[in-house]
Amino acid sequence: MSTFTERTSRWRAVPGWVLRVLIGVVAVVVAIATMGAGYEAIASTQDSQQHPAPGQLFDVGGHRLHISCSGQGSPTVVLEAGGGGASLDWSLVQPAVAQKTQVCAYDRAGAGWSEAGPLPRTPQRVADDLHMLLQQANLPGPYVLVTHSDAGIPTELFMVQHPDEVAGVVLVDARQPDSLSAENRQHQLDQARMLPTITTIVGRFGIGRLFGADLYPQIHPEGRFLPSATRKEMLLQSASPVYVDQVISTIESATANDLELQALTPGALGSKPLVVLTSEQYLALYSGWRIAQQELSALSRDSVHVTVASGEHYLQWQHPQLVIDAISQVVDAVRSGVPLRSSI
Predict the structure, then answer these.
(1) Which DSSP helix (H) or strand (E) runs through 103?
(2) Do residues 124 and 157 lie in contact, with contact meaning Cβ atoms separated by under 8 Å?
(3) Which domains does the chain have, with CATH numbers?
(4) Which one, out of 89, 141, 325, 342, has a CA that is 20 to 30 A from the CA of 39?
(5) Alpha-carbon distance 1 to 13, whole Å?
(6) pLDDT digits (tens, 9 = 90+) for 219-232
């Protein structure tokens, strides 16, 4: 082990200009980080004033959830973003649906403008939160549920436990228990556990605020279909420890309520209109996705299953009109009582 004297001697042997360069580099890095942190603190305060929640927050048992509604008429369409997503995920879809009926997008606990909820974030807890939120917001059912990706599991629980409150369903590349293997789920969890480091860098030092519009497509390639301002806002919303904790807990608890979902047998929805949209991207990526999507489409005797050629997972970003049309068709079927299949 080298002594203090030996280490000091080695440093003295380093040319003075090298030491000055090293000290200069360190000083610049510290200065940039300090300025970035200061900039982020100021800009975050301005954001809360300039970009308040577009909707309302309601207490659902110790924490408040944000829901933003637009349009008029029934049935009310409820939009649920995929795992890690928030109400802004539907920004290309909601305005068009609002021209036809009332439509509400909400943020799960810890996402978007919602407050953090208790852990673990099991599918049951998410489904219970949504049910209470709809009651607290005084939004009468039955609803047309529209869900994406991992949010398929809590939505399916809602369908099992509150069948009288479900008028129709649109599943956008949604997951069910058999969609992913244990290996696939572990891979998702490993990726999520990298989030604390990423969000610290992106959020704390102002990087997301300066370059968010360009960075977001690196995280979600389909983000290239979104307007620049939306991409930036999404990245900033996800750059927080609260958000990260909720996402990791959601992935860790993804299979917690699989037994309850055994009630979702073929025909479980009766003849309620159901549209299943499936991306070719996930069919190629996950071996269990095709069978799982077929099982989802079998939940109703009045269902339409569409596989989107060259479709990427975020179909509501890549092909928003396709999702809008699917919702419109389900709303029409609910209103008219005419089977979905006979009207397409």
Answers:
(1) strand 103-106
(2) yes
(3) 4-50 (no CATH), 56-343 (3.40.50.1820)
(4) 89
(5) 19
(6) 778 889 999 888 88
